[in-house]
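Limitations
The structure tokens in this dataset are predictions for the assembled complex, not deposited experimental models. Users should treat interface geometry with appropriate caution, especially where small molecules or nucleic acid strands are included. An illustrative entry is reproduced here so readers can see what is and is not provided.
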Amino acid sequence: MLAGPGKGAAIGQRNDISSAFPCEKMHEAPMPESSLVMMVNSIGPVVLAVLLAVLGSSWLLPRPRGRFVSGGVTAWIAAAVILAVWSYHRWGRPTLELVGSVLFLLFASAALGGGATLVVQRNPARGAIAFAFAILGVCGLFLLLAAPFLMAVTIIVYAGAIIVTFLFVLMLSQTAGPSDENDRSREPLLGGLAGFAFAGLVLWLLHISSLGNGSTLVRAVEWGEVGRQNQTERVEGRADVDEDREENRSGGTTPSGITPQTQKELLTVLTNAERQKLREALRRLDHAEEILAGDLRQEREKRIGYFETVKDLVIQVVGAAREDEMGAAREGTLSERLVLPVHATEASVPLYRSDPQVRAVMAQVQRVRATNWRTFKHIESQFLSERPEKASMEREVQLLRQELLVLLGYGETPARTVSNLGYVVYSEYLLAVEVVGVLLLIATVGAVTVAQRHTGERE
Amino acid sequence: MIGLWHFLAVSAVLFGLGLTGFLTRRNLITMFLCAELMLQGVALNFAAFSRFHAQMYGQVFVVFAVAVAAAEAALALALALVLYRQARSMDVSVWQSLREAGVPATVDLEPLQIPEVAQEEEEVHLPPAGLRPLDSCTEEHAGV
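Predicted assembly:
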């Protein structure tokens, strides 16, 4: 279904980032007279999907007679396909990361299919099994979201809950033949309308807020995709990256700032701004082949300038290796944010972290610093020499690229999020943990109290 | 690439499905499971925002939500058990006498379709050990 247009997009994406966001370009242009038509065009599929889903649910929900199963299933599948195609065209091309996309589709369809089966299944025992599949799908999505701890917790808690529910079904709800509770629904049409109209409204809201019309929240959560384009233009237009940095700080595209000393910002290893810079550097290293093509003895300044931009981008994040010609050694934003400054007096100690994750990150920062310095020096000296060696320069570029990827990975590796989660829970939310523990205890006692048989009459 | 919006869309549809089921189904246990489905949609939302803000707060929220959901599950199932003891049915409409004043009662007009029980074939009865069988097969044998 998705393979045809995706291939073309994959080729286009590599050369031109902006071509992957045609909708944003389209909606950014102010066209008030045709905005209603555009809105209908863009949101029409969602309305259609919601109507189909309501129709399907009114056919599929249990009722004594006149249940139209094949029609309902067809309507739901049509609604799901319409929604999938719509979100595919609206929010990017999922075929770029093939494995991730396939897993996402698999888990999402397991979650939605399980949920749908639970809603329309007459037999509550089968409904419980379908719910288990929905939970497994959601757990897969949790894994894709780098939340392995949540996956484990959900499986453990809900597996227990489902087994208990299953026992309840077996004990209480085993009725021979049709029964009121399993074969009737309250207001299938209106109930379906309520549920799916809600889902459609949320999707419409997502659609509106993802247009990228100046909301900092939206820009922050987009992995910096919109901001990255702006930054590319800016960096290419100017040699002085310091100015760029200032502009970034005041521009509002990076709400996380550069030197935040708030506890909130400490807990993220890489802020969105740093991520953007590293990704931009990586993108440029990926395209280094084009710069290293042709006769290397010509246009030396331009080629060196290309790599200098990469060096400056990396330096902004990790700092400079030693005092270079330009001036004093610079601390990168990472160490400014995460590490206790050497000159901090007792009164002005800012917040800092000393957990293993930060130590690992800072070790990698040292490596990136050294590699960055060496790579740039090597490339510069090669370009300035009589016979530049293309192979050795490419090797150095590859080395820097690998170190950068590892550094990016420290902010993203799922295995590290578990310890990070523990750090947050037991440092900031200790009181909440205690409260939840008490709540669980009360709930247990309450459940026992509610469920016990009252023997007061006998005494 | 799979972005934040795809996860949000999935969680919205999950919540909508759970809402539909909770509003329309009449079995207490199915209603309970549908409520859990809604909770999963919300949890997915939190986790997605947590991932795409590169912060842990969303996951912390989900951890607490799961803990509260466990407490809720214990109480809900205990309540279902008590209700079943009172009415001998898992049907929530049994309890519609608790509805607000002035709201008309729901009456099930459509009769349930009781499937016709197929005529069971006569099962073969084994004779008790030690007794002479008295069925037709023994008569055949006697005839031989």
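Some entries come with short summary sentences. For this one: Residues 356-384 of chain A form the longest helix (29 residues).
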